[in-house]
Amino acid sequence: MNNSRPPEFIKLIISLECVLLAAFLILLSPAGDLISRSVPASGQGTERGEEAKNDASSKGGEEHKSGNSRQDGGNRESGSDSQSGETGPSGESGGTSPSGETGQASAEEKKDFIKWVDFQVTKEAMEKAFRYDVDTCQSEIHLSWTELLAYLGARYGGDFSKYKSSDMENIAQRLLDGEKMEDITADMKYYPYYLEAYTAVLGGMVGEFKVEIPASKAPEFILKASENSGNGQEDGDRKVWVTKYGLKAFSPIAKNYPYNDYDDFGAARSYGFKRQHLGHDMLGQVGTPVICVESGYVEAIGWNQYGGWRLGIRSFDGKRYYYYAHLRKNYPYHKSLQEGSVVQAGDVIGYLGRTGYSRTENTNNIDEAHLHFGLQLIFDESQREGNNEIWIDCYELVKFLAVNRSETVKKQETKEYYRMYQMVDPAIPGGPTEQRIPEESPAEQESAQGETTAEPEGTSEGREAVKS
Description:
- Among the domains are: about 40 residues, no CATH class; about 190 residues, Glucose Permease (Domain IIA) (Distorted Sandwich), CATH 2.70.70.10.
- The chain starts with 6 loop residues before the first helix and ends with a strand.
- About 20% of the residues have low confidence.
- The radius of gyration is 27 Å and the shape is globular.
- It is about 25% helix and about 20% strand.
- With about 475 residues, it is α+β, with helices and mostly antiparallel strands.
């Protein structure tokens, strides 16, 4: 009996063995590692990926699953610079650099952009740095608040629990005495990282702008310059335009409306899946006007099962994505808004509510009315959605912004709110469109203004310098 195999069969066996060997070698290669990384672990897809089955138009920090944005802090490098006194970003030993690169990183991961930001700057540090910036805006040496904060960030390794007011004063005085920041930080390895990271968070919030103010609060030289533009009203009722340098970003909650909050970033959420709370909740009354923090354009608007009626506004430099969620049932947005709309800092963009946690649109499933406010940083469009998103803790930032709250008025006929004092932000391409309340009778105006209280806890005094 002949036991020899046909040549064709032997060739087939050899071909199959070659294919299996090639597949095994590919899995051991960098390409194989990239393939394995592209397949998410069970239960760790992003909200966008999860909702693609049901709703392709979803986005925002409220909707992320645990593990997204690497909020465990593992993507940081420990270390110090003994010559400069600088401390590297604290984190797990043997971790990665602030840019997120590892020794075994794939080609995609080695792109030259920041992949992690842990924003721990305190309200007190922001206030002091901001004060230096404003006070020197017309001086020969103008101090940049982001540079001051970046210097301290490099010194503290980003840990502002170490912050001392004297540290800020010392670096500010050195600069005022003529030293250059580039010389001071020449040996600080992480200063460029903190400067880019903190500029990404705060870059659009301070600058020159024009704004309306009550004539009663205007400097005398402003009143003289505008006296020919009066309309016969008393100064207490008249508004005048002034040019200022200072804080042009606003609190997300309108002036005269109370809210409560605490630092809830990273808290557990369980609707739909276990995940982290990658935003900041501001508890208030249903219908409270929600304010645009920074000028930008509407990138996302509509229903999301996690955030309910929500808005996503992208800054003009593309670095920041502001997320406002759980807006009011039936009337969530200002009627002027649609996808692509340009909005200005201080504009009314929507109304606080408790929608969300349902696939059925316009459902109130949130137990306590609140605004979910989130801030995502985007250094590269690959971070726009997915497991590489960067969401920061906004608690200290919101406390800082509370000094600047936009005052609103209500049109009784439509129940729509508008900003009371207009602003011209030069960052808006083509110039801003005013959000001015439509003409109404004196009786309507009196009724609308009668709904606001006297003066909130924060005022605009001390937040800017009037330019002469």
